[in-house]
Amino acid sequence: MVSSSGTSVAVPSPRPSTAERAAEGPAVRLNEVRKVYGDVVAVDRLSLEVVAGEFFTMLGPSGSGKTTTLRVIAGFELPDSGTVELHGSDVTRSPPYERPVNTVFQDYALFPHMNVLDNVAYGLRVKGIGKRERRQRASEALEMVRLPGVEGRRPIQLSGGQRQRVALARAIVNRPRVLLLDEPLGALDLKLRQAMQLELKSIQRELSERITFVYVTHDQDAALTMSDRIAVFSDGRLEQVGTPGEIYESPVNEFVAGFVGTSNLIQRDGRCYTVRPEKIRLLGEAEADSADAAGIVREVAYLGSVTRYVVELESGETLVVVRQNLDMSASSAMQQRGRRVRLAWREEDESELDINKQEERNP
Amino acid sequence: MSAALFRRPWLRAGLLLSGPTAWFVLIYLGALFLLFLSALWSVDSFSGKIVHSWTFANFETLFKVSAYRTIALRTVGIAAAVTVTDILLAVPFAFFAARIASRRLQAALFVAVLIPLWSSYLVRVFAWRLILAKDGILNWFVGNVGLGSLNIGYSNWAMWIVFSYIWLPFMILPVWAAIERVPDSFIEASADLGARGWRSFRLVLLPLILPGILAGSIFTFSLTLGDFITPTLVGGAGSTFIGNVVYQEVGISNNVPFAAAFATVPLVIMGIYLLIARRLGAFEAL
Q1: Closest chain B residue by Cα to residue A174
Q2: Domain count, chain B
Q3: Is residue B25 part of a domain?
Q4: Rounded distance, CA B254 to CA B207, Å?
Q5: Chain A: nearest CA to B89, how far in angstroms?
Q6: Among A16, A134, B25, B286, which residue's Cβ finds the most Cβ atoms within 10 Å?
Q7: Nearest of B85, B70, B236 to residue B151 by alpha carbon
């Protein structure tokens, strides 16, 4: 992958054409992967495909198997059964150093005894690439992650956000086919994390011709912000795979509905529905509208731009309603507590949940 | 009282350290100073009394008499060989113990490393004397395998083996601690970036555990350098150490100044060793 003139990160060496990529198959294909630690099943016969060039997020609570899945793709863990394919070739038994993937670690794993330049150029160094080219490509990778000019510093002299960028540069400088990111923004504070999400997404867009991003997180905001597709994990299994819109608007079961956003469950005629809080209109008792339910406001949480109301329905269920504070002040919002209200929503905002799946899994 | 201490952290630190500091200055530095001082004295060969006038005669004898040079070189050579041997044994062992072994095996290995330290040093050296003797276990075993007989009892080989065994725990423990401190993700990152096992070891693990290896080598090197019991018990005719000469000069010849002069040699060698280690950057990762 070394060309004499094309040493730039932005202008890569020969890239596969769309037709070639389609022939190669998906960037990542997991087939019935199973991984057991002692008597804990971390990943249970999991199959998924990641399309080349997409930003794919594996989302789930801790212990749901998402990180194990990532480690199986990277080659740090060998699956007990099942296969791992990268761009059509079976790498199930290959060691990490033979796989065309690179990883951004949760703790960044920057080598403390090397400066930033040596850290970023490490992968090029062990591949035997000459010093001058190493230097140049490392500097370009640092520019790519918007962190030029820190080559001589030690990791310990950098802030958390800067270290995160160095870790990203160290991975992408090797031009991997697949980039694995293990919750890399987890250690940053909220503001920085949100800024980095947008930046990471724009870096991914620049690189999407060559690099597929596989991102692991428990943070639903990060998943919704950056992903082309999201896979929701629970108990070592896939609950749902889809675009952020599909996951949020049409969750297939109670777990997905509850983990991504707030779930409002409504039982009706032996079936189970969910309606997102912002899709529900809050109406006064006397307002004449085709309301779906009536109840009493039990809790009010004023959140600045929006207010969250917890409404207890006459049927005994509890629904959360989120309303933008368009012409609602904080004090008038707080006065809603204890009021009788009527709730209304459009039928297309209802999403039916698969209750059988839950029962089948918890017999 | 405690409020005054609270407002003056330096006073607190001073009080806390006053005991250790006094001990260190009086006993340790004082003794060291006396050692250097007495090395510059001499002994009246007639009366056997110490003459308190300055002279470099002791050091001249050390450098001029070839027997002393040989003894010094032998001591340093075996100390170095023991250190290298212990590094080669300890690093793979500690790597296995810290990164591969299960929790229970780890605990068992830890006890196994420590148990020899609970028994007397003398007993262990005597045990080796029996193992290495001409009709000892080693020759019995070698003979049964059909390799004839090994004559390494009472030799420098015997000292090398016994020293390497006796000081091994002092190398394993700091190296183990150093390897344990390196996060798994560093090794994984190295492999992920394309490095095979050996390169990961050389480029990532080794530089990070070098301070631990150095700490261990200070033990193995200086303990061997100062020993005189093992050479007496398992060494042969040509196995005299600096320590043996010091012992003889103090106990038999009653020439304390010359003993002091010879005793400064290991100190100087240790000083040079630490300087070289610093040059090599062994302390940078601390």
Answers
A1: B193
A2: 1
A3: no
A4: 47
A5: 25
A6: A134
A7: B236
Is-above-0.90 flag for pTM?
no
- Is the domain covering A18-100+176-249 a CATH 3.40.50.300 domain? yes
How far does A255 lie from chain B, in Å, by closest CA? 31
**CATH-assigned architecture of domain A264-361:** Beta Barrel (2.40)
Q: Are A18-100+176-249 and A264-361 the same fold in CATH? A: no
CB contact under 8 A, A112 and B208: yes
A110, A111, A134: which to substitute to probe chain B, counting the most B Cβ within 10 Å? A111
Q: Edge-to-edge strands of the sheet including A101-104?
A: A101-104, A178-182, A212-217, A55-59, A229-234, A237-242
Residue A105: its chain B contacts at CB < 8 A? Answer: 185, 188-189
Report the gap between the CA of A190 and the closest CA in chain B (Å).
25
ipTM for the assembly: 0.83
**Minimum CA–CA partner of A182 in chain B:** B185
So what's the pLDDT on residue A315? 83
**Cβ-defined contact of A113 to B285 (cutoff 8 Å):** yes
Range of the domain at B245: 66-279
Q: Which among A95, A96, A109 has the least Cβ separation from residue B186?
A: A109
CB nearest B192 (choices: A102, A107, A113): A102
Is residue B277 very low, low, confident or very high in pLDDT (cuts 50, 70, 90)? confident
pLDDT for the residue numbered A23: 55
Here the CATH number for the domain that contains residue B274 is 1.10.3720.10
Q: How high is the pLDDT of residue A8?
A: 40
pLDDT band at A348 (very low <50, low <70, confident <90, very high): confident
Residue B181 lies in a domain: yes
Q: Is residue B40 part of a domain?
A: no
Query: What does the pLDDT look like over A28-53, one tens digit per residue?
Result: 999 999 999 989 999 999 999 999 99
Nearest CA distance, B196 vs chain A (angstrom): 7
CB B97 within 8 A of CB B106: yes
Q: Find, among A139, A164, A135, A161, the residue nearest to A149 by Cα.
A: A139
Disruptive mutation site among B193, B203, B205 for chain A (greatest number of A CBs within 10 Å): B193
Q: Is the dihedral of CA A163, A168, A170, A173 positive or negative?
A: negative
User: What residues of B are in contact with residue A113 (Cβ under 8 Å)?
Assistant: 207-208, 284-285
Q: Is the pLDDT of residue A105 over 90?
A: yes
B204: in domain: yes
Amino acid residing at B86:
D
- Tell me the domain boundaries of chain A: 18-100+176-249, 264-361
- Structure confidence at residue A115 (pLDDT): 95
Residue from the list A105, A113, A127 with its beta carbon closest to the beta carbon of B189:
A105
Q: Is the pLDDT of residue B251 over 90?
A: no
Contact A107 B196 (CB under 8 A): no
Identify the closest residue of chain A to B196 by CA–CA distance: A97
Contacts A–B by Cβ distance under 8 A: 63
Q: Are A32 and A47 in contact (CB under 8 A)?
A: yes
A137-to-A142, A148, A164, B58, B86 alpha-carbon distances in Å: 9, 12, 18, 62, 42
Are B191 and A97 in contact (CB < 8 Å)? yes
pLDDT in tens, B70-93: 999 999 999 999 999 999 999 999
* Cα atoms in the Cβ-side hemisphere of radius 13 Å centred on B276: 9
